[in-house]
Structure formats: C-alpha cells, structure tokens
Design brief:
The strands form three sheets. A five-stranded mixed beta sheet has the order 10-9-3-6-11, with helices on one face. Strands 5-4-7-8 form a four-stranded antiparallel beta sheet, with no helix packed on it. The chain has a two-stranded antiparallel sheet with strand order 1-2. With 192 residues, it is α+β, with helices and mostly antiparallel strands. The mean pLDDT is 84. The protein has three helices and eleven strands.
Amino acid sequence: TTYLYLPQMVDQFWENIMKTWITKTIVVSACVLGIAGCATPVDRMAEKPYCHTHSGRNAYCTKDPAPSIAKDDEAKSFASVPEALTVYVLRYRDDGHHQLDISVDGGAAMETVPNSMIRLRLKEGTHQITFNVGGKTFDRTISGTKGEVRLLGITGTDYFWGKSSHQWTNDSVDQLKQRALRSRLIKDITLL
C-alpha cells in the first residue's frame, strides 16, 4: 500500500483541479466558438438550391437555385399585382420524399420538393395546372383576372413498400396560406 503524505496529497489535489479546470475551459471555449459560428448572419439575398429534409435526413434538393429568403418573405404576403393573375402552387410537407414536376398549360415542367411552393404570374383567363406522379396525371383548371390571387395545394403519401397516393387538395384559402407560411418559395415564374 502506498501512503501519501500531506504535501503529496495537496500537490495531487491541485494537479487534479488544474486538469479539470483546463478541461472545462477547453470545453466552454469550444462551445462559445461553436455558438458564435451559428450566429453568422444569413445572406437573405442569396439564391441557392432548397433542400427538404425528413426528420433531419434524406435531403431532397432542387436542381435550380431557389429565390432568396427576402423574396420568400415577400411572396408570403400573398399580394396581388395589377398586371397578372397570381397563382401559388403549394406542395405539402408530408406528400412523399421525391421531386414532383408541375406544368402550366402543357408548358415546361417545373420541379418541386416537399414543403415548397411556386408562385406563378399568369395572363388572366383559364389555365390548366398539371402534375404527374406514378404514371398518373392530375389536372386542376383555374380561372382568374388580373389582380386576383389563387392558391392550390398538392398532398399525398409515399409508402415504404413503393405505393404512393397524390391529389390536389380541397383545403380552404386560409388553410393553404397557413401551410404556405411554413413552406419555402422555390420558383417565382412570370408567364405573361
């Protein structure tokens, strides 16, 4: 058995305290520096791809850059413009974890990802908005005049065994706006 004399015990006591203090100082410093890094201001004008994640994993990203966060905020005011019919196409968060393309009047496909929306500025009149998934085509016809705003929602489910189910929603304008406020503007298109 080794016996420590009082001076050795005091030395060992201070040595342990110093090791603990140094360790705590390093840990606290690392945390402070980490938090400072998170506090870096976000560039609200940057346009970059938007990525939807499901439970913190499985990112599904747009191929094209999404409008800036500032443009996203502006779009969520749902303001009309006097020269166009404004249509928001909202894709719900839990409608599957894959890209889904929509088109207007048979035009070029525009990709969406879950929890996103597209703002369209269209000529007044009647338009057909279409999306395709699982070999099925889903159409919605809308009509409107200059200065009006319309909202459409896409919902659905993807099952792990490969089956999926999608459709246009029949939600109220208020319900669609509430969901849109929690989504991300990924396209802002003018087709006048």
